[in-house]
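Running this now, will post back.
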Amino acid sequence: MKNTNTQTRFDHSITIVMIIFTLLLFSAFQLSAQEVEKDDKKTNETQSIESPNAPQVSSSEVVIKNFYGIPMIIITDENSGGSITLPILNSTGNITNKLYNFNGRLHWNGIDLIGTAARKIDDLSDAIYDGSSLFLGSDNGENNVGSDNTAVGHFSLHLNTTGNENTANGHSALKVNTSGSQNTANGAATLSSNTIGNHNTASGYAALNYNTSGNKNTANGDKSLNSNMTGSENTANGYWSLVSNTTGEGNTANGSTALYSNTTGHINLANGVKALYSNTTGGYNIGIGYEANYYNSGGSFNTIIGHGAGRGPSIHNKSGNIFLGYQAGYNETTSNKLYIENSNSTSPLIWGDFTNGSERVVINGNGTSGNAGYEFFVNGDAGGLTAWNNLSDERLKKNVSTITNALEKVNNLRGVNYEWIDSKRFS
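Update: finished.
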């Protein structure tokens, strides 16, 4: 369909033509000047020279004839420029290094100069423009019947048939896409395997490379979401973020290698370099901070906020934890725990257990045990601005007995008045 001659050859030929044209014009001007000197009485009309092969000079053109008086070259003044007319040859004869008109087409040294001219994009050997879609690069858009597609790069949108409104920039971008639409691929091998997936955006080498039918994914960064095949509505920003994801959906990873190992886990949020790095199948996790919840693999429903929080010494599958602070819960490998701390201490400022039947909170405890007999335990003084309430209801009691000599015991109590030593602290 396309002309296979190169534009470079055409440009070279045109340069040669312009040189010849310039020389002929210069010769014609010299001839004209000589004729005027010979006879300044002649008018500006056509000057007749009796020799049949002498140049014929007028105010508008120069005609060079052969011995038989047949015009060989006609140089014409076109007001704003000039033109050269060559007679049509019926046979070429010796054409070596010659410029000639053969059957109405300009040739040089056996080359059809008109045939090499690229008058529109579609004339180029490595470009296609059908009025709607544009393909620049070899082996792309060969079977396209879709509309409003743009492909730049070798093999980009190579197999596209009915897909519409796709943009592919880079070697093999959207290479095997057939009917997927409204995809944007920027970078070599981006969305390379996509066939029917729609509304995907990939920027960076091999981003979303193996996606086939996943929809509404966004991948920005080298190999981000590289292994995703059918997963949808994932967002990966950063080098190799969500790189192993295959079918997981609704995940968001911001940061280099965030959610790196995730394969089928869904609706996870990882913000920070290596956040939720080892998560594979866990879902509904939140990891914010460098290496937050790094070693958790299959655990779910964790909220981990802080640099290294919940990182762990090895792979674990803890679920339902809430860790807040720098390295909070760093060594915790069980589930349903609360840590509020600014170090990896095993005696956090606040520790809690959400396990059914074991719910309790320990503040400033010794380790995480406190006193197992209390649901709320404070190691040290506790105070409040209002009275502490001890609930008393006969319905909640058993083995009720009368206190003997109750009045006597009350009379033995010592009532005192006092003032706080630190009135600002305890007022």
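The mean pLDDT is 83. More later if anyone needs it.
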